[in-house]
Amino acid sequence: MIGALLLFAQLTVTVSAPDTVRACEQFTVSIVGSTRGGGTPRFTAPDVAPFTIVASRASAQTSSDVLGRSWSVTDIELTLLTDRPGRFTLPRFEMRAGRLRARGPGRLVRVIGDRDSSAVPAVVARGQIDSSADVALRALVLPDTVYVGEQATYQVGVFISPSARDKLRSNPSFVPPQLNELMAYDYPGDRSRRPIRRRVGSECYDVLVYERALFPLVAGRHSLSPAELSYSLAVGAGFFAGSERREARSDSVSLVAIDPPDQGRPADYAGAVGDYEVQTSVDTTGGRVGDPLVLTLRIAGEGNVKLLPRPNVSLPWASLVTGDERVTVDSLSRRIRGSKEFDWILTPRRAGTQTVPPISYPFWNPRSKRYELAASSAETLSIRPGALAALPGDTARSSGLRAMAIRRVMRAPIGPPLPQQPVFAALVALAPFPALSVLAVRRRRRTPRPITAAARLRAATRRAAPDDPAVIRAALVGALVERRVSTPFDLGRDADVVRALRRCGVSLETASAAGALLAELNAASYSPSRRLPADAARRARTIFRAVDAEARDRAMLGTLGA
Asked: Does residue 264 fall inside a structural domain?
């Protein structure tokens, strides 16, 4: 009887979902459960990780088919969201109706995005964000405990909500924390890379990540102050809406640095931390005694190559003098690496086949947690005989000269230099006095008085035999203009001259004489013969003296002397 009832009752579950969705975009999954004769199907929500159920809707109804059989249908719609790209299989959704239980098929959903989930920075994946905040800052140091000289990565994530993203007026201003006893390398930014998207609740935040490689220089706990971010959000709608200035701060983080262990430390260990390889090279494979060569040691690998110390190198058959150092840092990868080259000036002292032995360089490897030794290969050189400059002691012995004796008695203390003695200060103070005395006794130069037009007229008319009418005319015109009784524009016609002089208070007789004389001088100046009118010089001097005496304005010139 029970088997017949179970055969009569049927429960089916169907699931529909999109095959491909984009990360941080919501999509809908529909689950429909139908049963005949077994009651209303009930839905049991399973774990849908890495998806999040943003919203859900359920409805139930009863219907009959063409044969009159009653069916109960339950329709479930789930709105899912994820920020992880990849291929994920939805779980088999289950429904129950009384003693009946059925599961729908699993659905494969491909989530596409701009970034692989495995490459998401740790601060994005681990940061705890308050969904009510428009902009949030989170900081992280990985690992939090390193050896002195080992790299740690400092990350700051700027989480921007969708509402704040639409209201940002300009790019936020980021201020990193101050670093003490830490050496930092900034990773180059990629402006073409799109922001990372991180799901926070039912929304996806845009995340901008700032990263730095840190190398502690001393042991101890290093506290990093909070990073600060300043940004402006629009207040209101429209292009001319105002803006509100806000600030956000990250949490403070700490980095613990410990020294490499003393156990097993090589005697020539100088503090290098990382993973390195060593190579040596000489600029030439042959040379002569006394001719300098360049020996180069190249240390390359992963670590803070800028602070690698120079090793101690010595050769019994040559002298070595330290030379240049060159550093190349590659900060494109997540782990800082590069190379450092050390030069020595090598001067051979012995001829023959000489060998530069392998140069060893000890360092502490934080990955293997042990001291390791990198060694270079040997270099063979062929040194020919040559002239080597002798040392001063060798020259004294070879020439039979007496070497300079060593002074055994301490000499008297040397006095202070001349600029620090009082006599020098007194001489400096007295230095300006000779120059000041010369300036005091020097006679002051008289400024020459300018030659007036009246003086030029007097000089031109008192010549023994003036023969050029243009000279007398120019002197008379200049004197009248300087006396301010006429202007150059009033001297074109005799009537204008008379009118101008009369306005200044000159009598009609004098004004008429001046006009007539200027007319005669004009005619003589522009005639081919240029003959001077009779007694023109005396008349010009007499007329100007009369004009100067009769005119009202006497501020510029005094009377013209006889």
From this structure: no
* Ranges 110-119, 407-416, 474-483, 550-559, most confident: 474-483
- Same structural domain, 229 and 145: yes
Q: Where are the alpha helices (DSSP H) in 263-350?
A: none
Residues listed for the chain:
562
152 and 280 together in one domain? no
Domain that includes residue 497, residue range: 453-550
Model pLDDT, residue 37: 65
Q: What is the 3-state secondary structure (H, E, C) of 122-136?
A: HHHHHCCCCCCCCEE
Least confident of 104-118, 142-156, 350-364, 434-448: 434-448
Q: Please give the Cα distance from 8 to 4 (Å, whole number).
A: 6
Helix (H, G, I), strand (E, B) or coil at 315: coil
**Residue 193: exposed, middle, or buried by beta-carbon count in 10 A (0-12, 13-18, 19+)?**
exposed
Residue 392 has pLDDT above 60, yes or no: no
271 Rama class: left (phi>0) / alpha (psi -120 to 50) / beta: left
Looking up residue 354, the CATH number of its domain turns out to be: 2.60.40
Is residue 268 within 8 Å of 314, Cβ to Cβ? no
Residue 354: what pLDDT? 93
Q: Are residues 8 and 101 located together in one domain of the fold?
A: yes
Q: What is the pLDDT of residues 320-333, one digit of tens each?
A: 999 999 999 987 88
Q: What is the mean pLDDT of residues 202-230?
A: 90
Helices first, then strands: H and E counts in the chain? 11, 30
Please give the tally of structural domains in the chain.
4
| Rounded CA separation 494/491 (Å) | 7
Q: Please name which of 78, 83, 47 lies closest in space to residue 203, comparing C-alpha atoms.
A: 83
